[in-house]
């Protein structure tokens, strides 16, 4: 039952009941619409109260109907809001938990609104490449003012109800209540206003002009690379320049235009990719999860310190172990700097920060890890060293403890094999800076038990990470693909491009950072060490002579003042030394520089990711194409409004991609075998 009806004298109570967030499904919309029709016609009903549960009034559209005919079937949400507008009796909305998107538009169409102070309020449709399509851009500025609406709607920003209720001259909420008093307060108000006429409708209010705020918002959003934010601003302009019905019509036209845009398709794909990633074969709702309360981190370098910070911020107790006293002090200082920055930015109270600090214990001895529920190793990327560490951890950790390696490339099964508990070993590959980056690759070893994997996924969720499960291979999903991407970038240098030309082309397409600026930031010496390790292990796929020579010159990137660019602080400038290195390299390998178009640069880089992604799917390393896209959206700066490398390749069409692959396979200096079929 999607709407539960009950009577309290002359009051009709309508409870939205479509778990988990009362999504506005076709069945719910139909039931609510029909209940409102009956209530309006029933002389025994004086007022209507609409409420949800304590967790949600409504989270908006039912995502299970996205792309289905039911999503737009009548009564659609605009029709439901119009029905509320036409009511001859007062309708009160009692809001707890959240009112987002269409859920807030529904509440805005009611005559009165009561809310619990900590409820989350917003119109986040822009995050799906859309604008509110049921009057939200017309009613919301009439409720809170155009200036605040321009801050929230084009950015998809959410606010606490209590903060919105404190805005001067707001007409969004009539009363702020505690959770336990909400329903009674709403019932009392409904009785009080039952005879009040005329009914207060937001559509009948006017929104004061704010020309400077409008101009600033339009300029800000016009500079963005996808259309939804600017469309939101233009729809909001209609709230002050057009009659209500014309503004709603313009809003709806804008919504329909955005719905068919490639950017919205990409953003909706990303939204569903995040939800699909949690569906892992062999992991069910009833799969046991272990209680991971105390986490040990071995290694207090940049990564280890960042992992410890992420765990602390997630509310866990942390034991940070580093044998070197100076390194331990640096790690703790980096952690403290992050925590204090959160306090300074107002994201964390001083009291809460003190509580986090109290949850941190440090030691120079492995023995301090003995009582931890999960131990994460974050030492130097060397197989022999990691195997030695895991033998020690296996001997000292309690029997039920999980052991995780933060390796970015090494074989997790070979690490697990040196322990007596391979079923309790897995990879947890964090991305730097670990306290900030959302992505966590959860690497499932051949022996990793289902409950161990389920527990690791729950741990990742607790510390705010976007988890993607990967199988064991060199580099897992993200780094294996980035190797092919960087390989193509280096081929482009061989063939006549400069680092700046390659970076400019892919950044103009939408990447936050091109491959050469990216590797300069990460440190060229990091990938150099990995190549050296692979050469030692006999797993080096292709020698990177040019990149090795750059490192031999001590050009490790920003940290050394020079890499593929010269640096003054963080500013990258073309390097004469690199230009000379490139010229000498081309002469040595016998390649005549040619003119390479930006379109070829972009396609070779993008399709190299997609081709390697196909291989990962064929090998079972990645579970689904959308998981691969999520890795790149969350960890590698792939533009979200482009959907990810697999989505991009699919959008181009199989025939067009195959033709481009044949072109690249014919480039003399490229790798024909790579561009061939899977």
Automatic annotation (TrEMBL):
Q: Which reaction does it catalyse?
A: a (3S)-3-hydroxyacyl-CoA + NAD(+) = a 3-oxoacyl-CoA + NADH + H(+)
Could you tell me which residue ranges the 3-hydroxyacyl-CoA dehydrogenase C-terminal domain spans? 475-567
Q: Which Gene3D superfamilies match?
A: 1.10.1040.50, 2-enoyl-CoA Hydratase, Chain A, domain 1, NAD(P)-binding Rossmann-like Domain
Statement: the UniProt record of this protein carries the keyword Oxidoreductase = yes
Q: Name one GO biological process term.
A: fatty acid beta-oxidation
Q: What class of enzyme is it?
A: oxidoreductase
- Where is the protein found, in the record's own terms? Peroxisome
Pathway assignment: Lipid metabolism; fatty acid beta-oxidation
**Which EC number(s) does the record attach to this protein?**
1.1.1.35
**Any idea what this protein is called?**
3-hydroxyacyl-CoA dehydrogenase
Originating organism: Inhella inkyongensis
What lineage is this protein's organism placed in? Answer: Bacteria, Pseudomonadati, Pseudomonadota, Betaproteobacteria, Burkholderiales
């Amino acid at each position: 039952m999607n709407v539960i009806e009950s009577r309290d004298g002359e009051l009709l109570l309508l409870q939205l009941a479509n778990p988990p967030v009362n999504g506005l499904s076709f069945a719910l919309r139909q039931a609510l619409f029909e209940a409102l029709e009956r209530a309006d016609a029933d002389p025994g009903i004086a007022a209507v109260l609409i409420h949800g549960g304590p967790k949600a009034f409504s989270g908006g559209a039912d995502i299970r109907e996205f792309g289905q005919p039911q999503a737009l079937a009548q009564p659609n949400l605009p029709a439901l809001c119009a029905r509320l507008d036409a009511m001859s009796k007062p309708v009160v909305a009692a809001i707890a938990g959240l009112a987002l998107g269409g859920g807030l538009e529904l509440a805005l169409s009611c005559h009165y609104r009561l809310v619990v102070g900590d409820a989350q309020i917003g119109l986040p449709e822009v995050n799906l490449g859309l604008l509110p399509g049921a009057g939200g851009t017309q009613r919301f500025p009439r409720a809170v003012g155009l200036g605040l609406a321009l801050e929230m709607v084009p950015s998809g920003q959410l606010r606490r109800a209590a903060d919105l209720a404190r805005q001067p001259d707001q007409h969004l909420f009539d009363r702020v209540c505690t959770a336990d008093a909400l329903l009674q307060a709403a019932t009392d108000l409904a009785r009080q206003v039952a005879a009040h006429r005329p009914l207060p409708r937001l559509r009948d209010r006017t929104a004061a002009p704010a020309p400077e705020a409008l101009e600033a918002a339009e300029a800000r959003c016009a500079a963005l690379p996808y259309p939804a934010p600017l469309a939101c601003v233009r729809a909001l302009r209609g709230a002050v320049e057009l009659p209500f019905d014309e503004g709603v019509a313009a809003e709806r036209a804008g919504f329909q235009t955005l719905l068919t845009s490639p950017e919205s398709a990409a953003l909706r794909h990303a939204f569903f990719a995040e939800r699909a990633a949690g569906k892992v074969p062999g992991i069910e709702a009833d799969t046991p999860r272990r209680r991971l309360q105390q986490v040990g981190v071995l290694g207090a370098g940049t990564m280890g310190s960042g992992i410890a910070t992420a765990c602390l911020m997630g509310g866990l107790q942390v034991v940070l172990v580093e044998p070197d006293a100076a390194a331990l002090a640096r790690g703790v200082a980096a952690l403290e700097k992050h925590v204090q920055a959160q306090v300074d930015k107002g994201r964390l109270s001083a009291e809460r920060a003190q509580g986090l600090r109290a949850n941190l214990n440090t030691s120079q001895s492995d023995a301090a890890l003995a009582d931890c529920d999960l131990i994460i190793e974050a030492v130097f990327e060397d197989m022999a060293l990691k195997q030695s560490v895991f033998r020690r951890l296996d001997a000292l950790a309690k029997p039920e403890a999980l052991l995780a390696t933060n390796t970015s490339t090494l074989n997790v099964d070979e690490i697990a094999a040196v322990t007596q508990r391979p079923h309790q070993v897995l990879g947890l590959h964090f991305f730097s800076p670990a306290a900030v980056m959302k992505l966590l690759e959860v690497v499932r070893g051949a022996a990793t038990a289902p409950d161990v994997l389920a527990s690791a996924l729950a741990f990742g969720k607790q510390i705010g990470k976007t988890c993607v499960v990967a199988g064991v291979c060199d580099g897992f999903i993200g780094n294996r693909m980035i190797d092919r991407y960087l390989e193509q970038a280096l081929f482009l240098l061989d063939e006549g491009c400069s680092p700046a030309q390659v970076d400019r082309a892919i950044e103009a397409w939408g990447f936050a950072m091109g491959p050469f600026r990216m590797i300069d930031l990460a440190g060229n010496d990091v990938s150099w060490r990995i190549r050296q390790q692979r050469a030692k292990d006999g797993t080096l796929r292709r020698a990177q002579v040019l990149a090795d020579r750059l490192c031999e010159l001590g050009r490790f990137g920003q940290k050394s003042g020079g890499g593929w660019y010269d640096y003054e602080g963080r500013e990258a400038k073309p390097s004469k030394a690199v230009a000379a290195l490139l010229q000498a390299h081309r002469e040595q390998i016998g390649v005549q520089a040619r003119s390479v178009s930006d379109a070829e640069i972009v396609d070779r880089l993008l399709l190299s990711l997609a081709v390697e992604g196909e291989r990962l799917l064929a090998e079972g390393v990645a579970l689904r194409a959308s998981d691969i896209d999520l890795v790149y959206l969350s960890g590698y700066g792939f533009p979200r409004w482009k959907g990810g490398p697999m989505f991009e390749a699919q959008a181009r069409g199989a025939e067009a991609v195959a033709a481009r692959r044949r072109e690249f396979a014919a480039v003399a200096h490229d790798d024909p075998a790579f561009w061939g079929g899977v």
